[in-house]
Every structure is written in C-alpha cells, then in structure tokens.
UniProtKB/TrEMBL annotation:
GO terms for cellular component: cytoplasm. It comes from the Eukaryota. The keyword Repeat applies. The lineage of its organism: Eukaryota, Metazoa, Chordata, Craniata, Vertebrata. It comes from Triplophysa tibetana. Keywords: Phosphoprotein, Repeat, WD repeat. This is WD repeat-containing protein 7. WD repeats lie at residues 60-104, 463-510, 559-600. InterPro entries: Quinoprotein_ADH-like_sf, WD40/YVTN_repeat-like_dom_sf, WD40_repeat_CS, WD40_rpt, WDR72-like.
C-alpha cells in the first residue's frame, strides 16, 4: 500500500494473547504508563491507575530484533515521548499516547543503555539522549531527530561502557556524566553549557577523569538524588557505595554463592534496593559511614573490608518455588516525582507478566527475627488480561472452529488472503484448511445482525489432507500471474507439501520429499529458467530445500546437505544458482538445473555472495545484451540452463515484445493496483497462533465504489464503453487492413513460440477446461465485495450511541450494523511502524468514561464503541474522521447507496446491449423510488455532518480528542478528491471550534518552524506553512 494512502487497520486478536517475553522495562514519570519491550521486537503499553491497577493498552510493531533498552524522550507531561532501540541498531521515537512513530533511524552500532538528559539554552529547553553500548564511547543524540550530534570519548583505556549515570548539580550549571567500562574503569565527563549547545559533526568531548575502581562486570550505576553525595555501583558478585566527590569506597557487600546481582537503586538516603538475576530483591539499610548526615560519614574510607553485610530490611520475591522461566526477569525501580508519590519495584518476565511491589516508607518492627517478605501489590499477564474479557476476544474464523468438547476454538496456524477473490484461506492446528469470504467472516466477529443466528455462517469450504498442523500457505498466482489461478500450496508438520484446486476443493498432488516440517514456501523470481518458473521452493526443518514443480508434479531438485538451520534463500537466475544461507554463517550455492552443489563458503566470501544476489537483477538484465559474456560463463560453469537461455534469448525477447504489444492493443484502462481490503496474518512469535489485521485502504474503497457506480446500467446516460470506443475506432479506421494482417502474423508467431520454445504444451481439452473454470464464479457466496467492505468499514467507524435517530436511520435505511464488541483499531505511522490496540483497552476506556457518568449508569457496548473510538488519541480521531466523512460523501453521491437489497449479492452488471429485448432490459435495471433515494442521501449527509461538526458537543470536550491540524493540513491537497474535501471541511470546522484564541496559539506554535530561506523546505516546514496559511484565512474571515 502506498505511503500516501489513508489506511486503517482493525485487528482480530483471538483467544490467545501474543507472546511477550519482556527484555526491557520503563515507567513514565507520571506513573500512569508502563512500557515493556520484548525479545521478539514488539513494545507493549500498559495503563496504571493511582490504585496500582495495571491493564495492557496497545502493542507497537516496528523493530525487527530484540528490544534492548527503553527511555523517555521528553520531560513534559503533556507530550510523552518514548525512544526504543533494538540489538540490530534500530532506533525509534514513539508518541506514548497513541503509539505513533515520530522518527526512526538505524545505526551500525547496538545500544544497551539510554538516558534522557535535558538542558536549557536561554528560555528554550532541549533534550538529548546519552547512548552507550557495544562501542567505546557515549553517543549524544538529539531527542527529536535521532541524529548523532557528538560523542563523549575516552583518551585513556577506551572500552565498551557497561553502565552510565548523569549527576545533576544544583549548585553549578555543569552536569556530570559518570560511566563504568567493562574493565572496571570509572570515567567522568563534564557537560558545560558550551558542550550542550554543540551541533552535529562537532569535535568529540574527552573525559575529565579516569580512575580504576575495580568493578568488573558492572551491571548498573546510580546516583543518590536524596543526598547528591553517594554513588551505587552494582556488580554481579558485589555492590558498592562510593562518595560521588572523590569516588572513595564507603561500603562493599558481597553476594551469596548462589546469587548474582543484576541492578540496584537508592530508595532513600539510608536505604538501597538490590535485585538478582533470578528475580529476588532485597532492601538494605546503609551503615552510618555511607550517610552524609551522620557524624560517622566517611569514617571507613580506606579500611572497608569485604563481608560486612548491612542489616536487611525487606526481602522481595525470595521464594524457592518460583516458576521456571525461559529468560531472566527484568527488574526496575521507579519513584513518582509527582502525585501520587509511589515507590515502585516492577518486574517483567518471559511469560509476559508484570509484577509490582509498592515500597513502604517505614521499616518493619525491629523485634522481627528475620527480614519481612513484602507482599505483591499487583500482578497481571497479557493472557490473564485476555481471559478476564467477556466475551473473549474473537479470532477471524472462531465461529467455524468451535469444538463441542472445548471452549477454545481450533487455533489458526497459517493464513493467506486472496484479494482478487475476497477469500481468506486459513490453515488450522488439526490439519484442515478453511476457505471463507473475508468480509463476511469479519462481519460475524465484529457486528451484530441476523447472521448471528445462523450456524456455520458464512458458507465456507474445508480442505482435509494434512495429518496435523498446517505451517504455511502460498497462493502462487497472487505473486506471479504465470501460475495457475486454481493452485493453492500448503505445507505442514507431517513433512508434506500439498497442491489444491481451490475452485473444486480437490487435492491435486502430495509431495513427501522432506524429512522435517515445512517452514516456508517461496516463489522463484521471474527471470529463472522456464522449468523453475513453474516451481515453488519449499524449506523444511531438516535443513533441506526443494524445488517442487506444480506442472510436472515432481521434485526437480532437493538440496539436503546443510548442517545448520536455513535462514535465507536467495537467487542468482542468470547463473542458474540457488543460494542458501544458514544460521552458522555458511552459504551453499546450488545449480538448479542439475541439482549439483557448486560450492560451500563461509566468512566474508559468504557475505559477499549474499550481497551479490541482491544486486543480481540489474546485472542479469544487462548481461542479456552481451551474449558472448553469457556464453563464456555458461561454458565455464557447465550450466545447461544457461546454455538453453542463451539459445532461446532472441526468440523469447520477441515473444515478450509481441505479448506486450498485444496487451497494449486491447486498449484497457489502467487499473488501480491497490486493494480496498487486505487481510494480513501476524504473530509475535513463531509458536503463536495467527492473529489477523484487516487493512482498509480508504482511497481504494472510494475508487472501487465510483467505478462500480459508473458501471451500473442507467438508461438515461450514454454507456461509458461507447464513449471510449468511438475515438478509438476513428483512429484505427484508416489502417484496418494493415492491422488485420499484422495481427494474423503476430498470432502465428505467438503460437509457434508457445508450442516449441515456452513449453506451453497443454492439449485442447485442458485449454477448454481452463476456460470453463475461469468462467466460474470465484466466490463461495454471491456478494458484492466492494459494498461489503464499505459496510464493514462504516459500521466499525460510526460513533454509535450519540444520536439515537441517526442510529435508526443507519440501521434501517443505510443497512449498517452495530458492533457487538469494542473494535481494536490500529494506527500506521512513519516507515510502516504500527500500533495495534489490544482488546483489553476497553477496561481503561470504561474506567475513563465512567468517571463522567452520574448515578452509576453502566455504559452499553454500543456507547463504549461510540464514545471510546474518538477518545483514544488525536491521531486516531483524525484518521477515523477523514475516513468516515470521505466515504459518507462518496456514498451520498451514488445511486442506491444502501447496504440493503439485491445489489449487495453481486457486483453491478454492465449496461444492456442495444439489441437486448425490452423485458430483459427492465429486469436488469434495479428500480428504487425517488423518495427512498432522497432518504438514503439524507442519511449519509446527516452522518457526515455529525462526524464533521457535532462530535465535540455530543461527546463533551473532556472525552473527545480533537483531530490534529498538521495531519489535516497534509491532506489539504490530497490526490483523492473525496479525502481532500473531507480534510478541508474537518480543518475548517476545527479552526472554528478552537476560536480566535486557539487560532492565535496555533500560529504562535507553528511560526518558529517556518523556513527562513525559500531554497530548501523540509516536510515539517511545509506543514507549518499550510497550517498557518489556513489559520490566517480563517482569522481574516472572522
């Protein structure tokens, strides 16, 4: 889908929560939001109430590797930003309120720790990110653009930094960065006002002090904000307290033999909390020699001995029967700087569970013989949150997968969507494959109507052939038109690959050539040899790769000598090579035509071969112009396929040119390539069942609606085909005889090429059967895919429960359906990054909405959907309002634009031909009264007006998140007329709503971003100019 398109995701999660093996953890300053990153690359946002109730809200997708660290990227509570990094160098800046990706970049180095640092330049406060990791310096990154400005470099013993802390001095304007390297050397950098103002590509800043403190394996370093005189350094075998002035050792405590410390923090001037790798935590009371307020402060400097363990105040989670976890839990301590002033210890584990302890201010009674066990304040996992929901979150085909003996439906393990047919193919855990209309099954899961009373709705087809779980599905015709559109390929854990006929449900062939479960099915590129072009590539868990011919029904090559799991498959078609990359870094090069292993390489040569495959496409095209070079390579490498390609190159080029000319002669109008609905299966971990995201492309829906409207028969108008054919006929009239002769010659050459060179040797009976199959209806149920998509989309987006009269019009006149469960929407932002609302978001929504309800009135599901959809975030409101208004305006301009009636069963027919009898012509034209048409148009007009103007009054400003002016300004000149008009109407309505003072504040906010020079204008400056220009027009109008 195009980046400029208006695309809205709706997600169906299913009963099983996604795997979330927590690798990093952060609590925002207001203690109302918890952020967790996982080893699979996703980020989860959790809401937390002042009563310490935790509820997961959204899942963020964007990283392709494990999230290594999280940090806040802003100091203000109004706009909360978050920065995340992964172990492959990806770095993303997110808006916490709606999960929007603001900025992203990728560096060559991986960060293991980030700390936010803010400084003041005059009256303006700017943020910086101090990053350290697998590199020998500290990078200073701009907190808004993610650009590396300068670095803090070591002159003496440069090495990787283990941990870092920023010491803020209230006495001076200078701040100090203290870091400990992996070899136990403490480094100190002083950031002055001049250093803070440094811009990009400036000279590095060297350390002021370097001192060995003999703390190998440092896990964390933290500064005591209560006294500003102590420094806590935690290593795996001991933790130590230093004087932050001269870094003298004040206290050293070893760990027990079975424990390994992993971090610690000051929780008071005289108390520290230390936690271990296995999730246990301990609170110690510091000795008087570590307390600046004590008269014994620094009394033990120079004579501190190992083994003097201070008194233990509390032990936390020190239980022997802890659950066995895959990865060590992540533990962090946070305390509130605003109301409420909680001191929280939070732990996240590999099961996706958050456990929270509230640290009390007072210590237990001294007569207790042992330390007291602190009780858990809150604990919840993603799966527990899913299980609490009533009804349970729906999967895409749950109504077809319920077993009588179990409450949980059969899990969907593989999926593929066929946009041309509107069908979704789902492989399940029991080995069966379900073919179902995608819009119809989504309507069953999300909307209420008469379909809820029908068992087994919608009509579907079940394919049975695999003995156990289906692991992958492929519809080759969707990737390349050279494949038969009837063929569907599936792989399972039973080592088999099956070819199906999706029109008849017949099993065509079973391949049993692998010795492990099938993990992947791949389509070879277009420029392979003719034989390989009719194959699919299968990858199995026994480290084998096969080329399976769908036409010959046999395996033409099996590569099975790989010693390690296969990670990547690449192609070198011009040399007839299949390149296999394994997890140990080795690369195997196979000849596809002979099945021979050409070479096996490792190291830098393997990397160069994989990189060369990425650049092989232009090289292959260029080599076609040099037959001598190709012939020499073919003879040198003894490649039969390369020799064949050389011999046939000229005639194949001729065939390609003829086919292209034939397509051009047909005079077809260029089709809009985007699909109005795409169903994408996703999983956070390979062991998870599939969840499904429905991507609605608003622009594509509008184009398809208008196209079908133009194709509807209308006796009062001239046929569009007649208008298109008339000028074409006039142009070709003068050269009719020449065209006829040329076409005859061309057809003769094409038939010869197909018969002798391209191996198109189907007989006449096969061709006849294919034509008959193509003429069949491709869907199991007669329905209009475009209108069904619009019905599902509009029913999900409409603000139900705010206007009772309009709701009745929508139900009875327009044919929309009420949702029976809160819809989990998503938001696509920069670079394809995406945030998806979890089904548990409605608990936070109910809590927020209930605060405005009087007399304990309980909100219905419809009211939650209506009031909650436009109260999530400003970006979500903007996308939804643009979609609703543009689609409502499109439907308002159509005839018979209701989702009730016979026209919903099939696509519109073309206008009747001039020779059609009058009785047939009348039956083909759908009749509807003018009064009904005007009521339908009025209904769409009222719906558009309510969402454009009336929502703030109906919802109340405290529950309504207004649209973002800059997002509307970007759509001011959108290429789609309907979206453009919706954006302009929304922007003007919002400027009127905020009044003169609001417009003045907007101008003051965006004025600094205006370009000072006209030569180069950035996208942000364009947004500023558009917003300010519209504000000025509106201000002048008032």
């Amino acid at each position: 889908m195009s980046g400029n398109s208006l695309v809205l995701p709706i997600v169906l999660w299913g009963h099983n929560a996604p795997t979330h093996c927590i690798s990093s953890l952060l609590v925002m300053d207001d203690l109302s939001t918890i952020i967790t990153g996982c080893h699979d690359g996703q980020i989860c946002i959790w809401d937390m109430t002042p009563e310490l109730e935790i509820n997961p809200r959204a899942l963020l997708f964007g990283h392709t590797a494990s999230v290594t660290c999280l940090s806040k990227a802003s100091a203000s509570s109004d706009k909360q930003y978050l920065v995340s990094t992964s172990e492959n160098g990806e770095m993303c800046l997110w808006d916490v309120s709606d999960g929007r990706c603001i900025e992203f970049t990728k560096l060559a180095c991986a960060h293991t720790g980030i700390q936010f640092y803010q400084f003041t330049i005059g009256t303006q406060r700017e943020g910086r990110l101090l990053c350290h990791g697998h590199y020998p310096e500290i990078l200073v990154v701009d907190a808004t653009s993610l650009e590396v400005l300068y670095s803090l470099v070591s002159k003496i013993s440069p090495d990787w930094i283990s941990s870092m802390s920023v010491i803020h001095s209230h006495r001076t304007q200078e701040d100090t960065v203290v870091a400990v390297s992996v070899t136990g050397i403490l480094k100190v950098w002083i950031i002055t006002a001049e250093v803070s103002r440094m811009q990009q590509d400036m000279d590095p800043v060297f350390e002021e002090e370097s001192k060995p403190i003999y703390c190998q394996g440092c896990q964390s370093i933290s500064f005591c904000t209560f006294t500003q005189l102590s420094l806590l350094v935690v290593c795996s075998k001991y933790w130590r307290v230093f004087d932050s002035g001269d870094f003298s050792l004040l206290c050293s405590v070893p760990s027990e033999s079975s424990q390994s410390w992993s971090g610690g923090e000051f929780i008071a001037a005289d108390k520290v909390i230390i936690w271990t790798e296995d999730g246990c935590s301990y609170i110690y009371k510091l000795p008087p020699s570590c307390l600046p307020a004590s008269e014994h402060f620094r009394s033990s400097v120079g004579k501190t001995t190992e083994g003097s363990i201070p008194p233990l105040v509390y032990s936390i989670a020190d239980s022997t029967d802890k659950q066995l976890l895959i990865c060590p839990p992540v533990t962090r301590f946070f305390y509130g700087r605003r109301e409420p002033f909680h001191k929280l210890l939070i732990q996240g584990d590999s099961a996706g569970r958050l456990t929270l302890w509230s640290i009390p201010e007072t210590s237990p009674l001294p007569q207790l013989s042992s330390s007291e066990e602190l009780q858990v304040s809150a604990s919840i996992s993603l799966q527990e949150a899913f299980d609490k929901l009533t009804p349970s979150p729906a999967g895409i085909i749950d109504q077809l997968s319920v077993l009588p003996s179990s409450n949980d439906p059969i899990k969907v393990t593989a999926s593929v969507y066929i946009p041309s047919q509107g069908r979704l193919v789902c492989g399940r855990e029991d080995g069966s494959i379900i073919l179902v209309p995608a819009t119809q099954t989504a309507i069953v899961q999300l909307l209420q109507g008469e379909h809820m009373l029908r068992r087994g709705w919608p009509p579907h087809r079940t394919l049975r052939g695999h003995r156990h779980k289906v692991t992958c599905l492929l519809y080759p015709h969707q990737v390349s038109p050279r494949y038969d559109q009837r063929s569907l390929v599936s792989g399972g854990v039973d080592f088999s690959v099956i070819i199906w006929d999706i029109f008849t449900g017949e099993m065509k062939h079973i391949f049993c050539v692998h010795g492990g479960e099938i993990t992947q099915l791949i389509v070879p590129p277009e420029n392979c040899s003719t034989r390989v072009q009719h194959c699919v590539c299968s990858v199995a868990s026994d480290h084998s790769v096969g080329l399976l011919s769908l036409r010959e029904r046999k395996c033409i090559m099996l590569a099975s000598r790989h010693l390690f799991p296969i990670q990547v498959i690449k192609w070198r078609p011009c040399d007839d090579y299949l390149v296999v990359g394994c997890s140990d870094g080795s690369v195997y090069v196979w000849q596809m035509d002979t099945g021979a292993l050409d070479r096996c390489v490792m190291g830098i040569t393997a990397v160069e071969i994989l990189n060369a495959c990425d650049e092989a496409v232009p090289a292959a095209l260029d080599s076609l112009n040099h037959p001598a070079v190709n012939l020499k390579q073919a003879m040198t490498r003894r490649s039969l396929a390369a020799l064949k390609n050389m011999a046939q190159h000229k005639l194949q080029t001729l065939a390609t040119n003829l086919l292209a000319a034939d397509n051009a002669d047909k005079g077809n109008m260029p089709k809009y390539s985007h699909n109005s609905l795409v169903v994408q299966s996703m999983k956070t971990n390979i062991t998870d069942p599939d969840m499904h995201v429905l991507f609605f492309d608003v622009e594509a829906v509008i184009i398809q609606l208008l196209t079908e409207e133009a194709q509807r028969p209308n006796p009062t108008l001239v046929s569009p085909e007649t208008l298109q054919k008339t000028p074409g006929g006039a142009d070709k009239g003068g050269s009719f005889l020449a065209n006829k002769i040329f076409k005859q010659v061309k057809e003769t050459i094409k038939e010869n090429i197909k018969e002798h060179l391209l191996d198109e040797d189907e007989d006449e009976e096969e061709e006849q059967r294919r034509r008959e199959e193509k003429s069949k209806s491709l869907s199991l149920l007669e329905y209009n895919l475009t209108m069904d998509t619009a019905k599902l989309f509009m029913s999900c987006l409409h603000a139900w429960g705010l206007n009772g009269e309009l709701d009745e019009v929508c139900l009875n006149r327009l044919g929309m359906l009420r949702p029976h469960t809160p819809i989990s929407f998503g938001l696509i932002s920069r670079g394809g990054h995406m945030s998806l609302m979890l089904p548990t978001f409605k608990d936070s929504l109910l809590r927020r909405l209930a605060q405005g309800c009087v007399d304990g009135h309980k909100l219905s599901v419809t009211e939650v959907v209506g009031k909650g959809t436009y109260g999530v975030s400003r970006a979500v409101t903007t996308q939804h309002l643009l979609s609703v208004i543009s689609l409502a305006n499109t439907l308002m301009g159509m005839t018979n634009a209701t989702f009730i009636g016979e026209h919903m069963k099939k696509a519109p027919t073309r206008p009747p031909r001039p020779g059609t009898p009058e009785t047939q012509r009348k039956s083909s034209v759908q009749t509807s009264s003018p009064a009904m048409q005007s009521q339908i148009k009025q209904g769409w007009s009222q719906l558009a007006a309510m969402h454009c103007v009336m929502l703030p009054d109906l919802l109340g400003l405290e529950k309504f998140k207004p649209p973002l002016l800059e997002m509307l300004a970007r759509r001011w000149q959108d290429r789609c007329l309907e979206v453009r008009e919706a954006a302009q109407a929304l922007l003007l309505a919002e400027l009127r709503r905020i009044g003169q003072l609001g417009r003045k504040d907007t101008i003051d906010l965006w004025a600094p971003y205006l370009p000072q020079y006209v030569d180069a204008v950035s996208p942000g400056e364009t947004d500023a100019f558009l917003v300010l220009r519209v504000c000025e027009v509106e201000t002048d109008a008032f």
